[in-house]
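Changelog note: in this version the structure field was regenerated for every chain. One regenerated record is shown below for reference.
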Amino acid sequence: MRYTSATPRKAGLVRQAGNMMMMAIFTIVILGFVGLGITRIFGTSADALVYEVYGLRALNAARSGLDDIVLQVFAGQVSDPAFCTAASDPDNRVDFTVSGLENCYAQFGCAVNQIDDTNYYRFESQGTCEIDDIVVSRTIAIDAKDIVDD
């Protein structure tokens, strides 16, 4: 006796058996790679934001160090080149404790050249922020001279 089913099998369905499983696995793998790519994009974007914020903090630290040394050299009516020479010590460092500049410091220096009774100054400051394994540094410099009244 032959067994007959209520729904007869078609010859085309027999050949396609298992194809849905392959399509499902393929779809899962492709969606996994898309998800991994999006995760990496978001991670890279977050890292770039961290470096941008700490870079701005380092720049502000460098500006603060530069303001400090310029103020000390030009504090009086006449500049003081002796202070500029003393400020060229590489150990000159200001550690900041104010809100926003925690874990940041500035190293600054000064050079003076005298030409025809006029002092020409070169001020340079490097701001650095260190957080965990992230170190960001920015350097700025300005030139100045004494104004000589004739």
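Spot check on this record: The chain has a mean pLDDT of 80. The first helix runs from residue 11 to 15.
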